[in-house]
Task: structure prediction
Amino acid sequence: MLQTNLNHINSEDEFKQIIENNENVMICCGRMGPMCLPVYDAMESLEDKYENVKFYDMDFDTPHAHVIRNHELARKFMGLPFTFYFKNGQAVHATTSIQTKKQVKSNLDEYLT
Amino acid sequence: MKAIHYDAIILGAGAAGLSAAIYLSRAKLKTLLINEGSIGGQMVLTHAVANYPGVHETSGRDISLIMKKQAKEFGADIESNVEITKLDLSGKEKLVEIDDDEIFTSDVVILATGGKPRKLGIPSETKFKGFGISYCATCDGDFYAGKDIVVVGGGNSALEEAVSLTKLVKSITIVHQFDNFQAHEYAIEQAKKNDKISFIMESEITEILGEELVTAVKVQNQKTGKEQLINTDGIFIYIGYIPNTDKFKDVIKLNNRNEILTDENMKTNVDGIFAAGDVREKKFRQITTAVSDGTIAALNAIEYIQTNKK
Ligand SMILES: Cc1cc2nc3c(=O)[nH]c(=O)nc-3n(C[C@H](O)[C@H](O)[C@H](O)COP(=O)(O)OP(=O)(O)OC[C@H]3O[C@@H](n4cnc5c(N)ncnc54)[C@H](O)[C@@H]3O)c2cc1C
Result:
């Protein structure tokens, strides 16, 4: 279990429901390491500003995280965390490795408006 | 936009800034801690801190969470993960604007902005981040299981991380710019006796090659100028830290490595501005020394505020 203040996704069913029932969803799939923590922090600090987006994290080492780990967009990813942006149930963008708050913000503005 | 006034503003919430915040807020001064990155700074990079006195081995993240809690409980306000959009340190009243929409002023500023990992400075470095370039072995090591990798650097981090990566990867080539290592003897010995590790000394990476993923690097010998191509699946970079002083380099006196010059009271060349932690010129950069700097800066800042209020 990730120790963040974000909502966690704990099963594949939950993941499916979340992306299908919400127009805009951002999911950061990682561990509690130095490359992942800044992304969780950035998401936590943006939650209030982006009310149209649902923010979640997912533990990279859980079986259900295969939905992100093995996602087509993550095929070439070699760095944690894997961060996904979903619109109307479809992954519209994904990034690998650490991202600054500025980069997260710009992705939210570009892909989840 | 109306400015909110504080007695003291601290820039940077690593070990130094958090310590300063604890002391200032405990002295009942109105204190604001502003951090551009994540709370804890470099501390959160350390999974196991074994040399912080009085604390049995714990993670750097846990130490920073406790420090943050202490600072908050004593009354410090914290703005984390924000961007400093304006900074005026030259006048008697100091001014900090964040995210283009909030302005704070203060009598005192403590600069505790620490350092950030040095980059290779090759244009393709950004493109390949997460696609063959990594700065964290414990985070990304799994992706390189059974592969050939390059580790860049010759300090403790480079050698220790290389040795730990040998448990996963097929081979490691360490590329280092000098003819000797800047690591502890034990770390050098462990790396040298590991069969999976080979060394290319006095050399630098000049080019990273690959389409979507890294496939090779060009390495140039600094003495002869000769270049060689090394096929590799990944590059782990540990070439030290550079101080975060860009935002105030025109006002605060720095040395030729861009570190802040202070006296033993952590005072800078500007009245009312103190500096603490890795951002200042000093020999030993540890959590303990950052905590010590933060404490000294805060106690002197308290004295400065009290004297100037009289
Ligand atoms: C991999 C690694 C392992 C280590 N292991 C150990 C260990 O085991 N034991 C030990 O004692 N030490 C260790 N160290 C060293 C120790 O972590 C540092 O010396 C110490 O944490 C430095 O603290 P600091 O507060 O000075 O700076 P930092 O930790 O760098 O904190 C500075 C903070 O300021 C923020 N910031 C940057 N620019 C600005 C700005 N313009 N405005 C506002 N905020 C800004 C940054 O985001 C950061 O949060 C290690 C360091 C590394 C990199």
About this structure: Residues 7-111 of chain A form a domain with the Glutaredoxin fold (CATH 3.40.30.10).
